[in-house]
């Protein structure tokens, strides 16, 4: 069994000044914890893997191929492989759990 505490992972990211950390990895999926603050930039990008984002805390917006949608704690976003996206306009600290399937980088 693998278990993590999202708030602890986010606090560690803040302390290190980092944006993300891979918390769990198996052959079939990987889980990252991501953290953004107001003023941070997330460039438009896509991944080869399917992605599921769970907003753990905070608020901001996501740009999915030009469609901008507000996101806040409790929201879940699913992206197909190759979908261009970026997070922006962080109102406060935005913390998310991101599930990649298969594991991030496995399709490269």
Set out the fold topology:
Blueprint: H1 6-16, E1 20-25, E2 30-36, E3 50-57, E4 59-64, E5 67-72, E6 76-79, E7 85-88, E8 94-101
Antiparallel strand pairs: 1-2, 2-8, 3-6, 3-8, 4-5, 4-7
How large is the radius of gyration? 13 Å
Instruction: Please report the total strand number as a whole number.
Output: 8
Please summarize the sheet with the most strands: 5 strands, antiparallel
Please give the order of strands in the largest beta sheet: 1-2-8-3-6
- Fold-level CATH name: Jelly Rolls
Number of helices: 1
**Number of domain modules:** 1
Mean pLDDT level: 94
CATH architecture: Sandwich
What is the helical fraction, as a range of percent?
Answer: 10-25%
GO molecular function: metal ion binding
Pfam families: Cupin_2 (PF07883)
Domain Cupin type-2: 33-89
InterPro entries: Cupin_2, GPI/OXD, RmlC-like_jellyroll, RmlC_Cupin_sf
Summarize the structure.
This protein has one helix at 6-16, and strands spanning 20-25, 30-36, 50-57, 59-64, 67-72, 76-79, 85-88, 94-101.
Characterization of the model:
The model has no long low-confidence stretch (mean pLDDT about 95). Helices cover about 10% and strands about 45% of the residues. The strands form 2 sheets. A 5-stranded antiparallel beta sheet has the order 1-2-8-3-6. A 3-stranded antiparallel beta sheet has the order 5-4-7, with no helix packed on it. With about 110 residues, the protein is mostly beta strands. The protein starts with 5 loop residues before the first helix and ends in a 7-residue tail after the last strand. The longest helix has 11 residues. The protein has one domain: Jelly Rolls (Sandwich). A hairpin with a 2-residue loop joins strand 4 and strand 5. Pfam families: Cupin_2. This is Cupin domain protein. InterPro entries: Cupin_2, GPI/OXD, RmlC-like_jellyroll, RmlC_Cupin_sf. Keywords: Metal-binding.
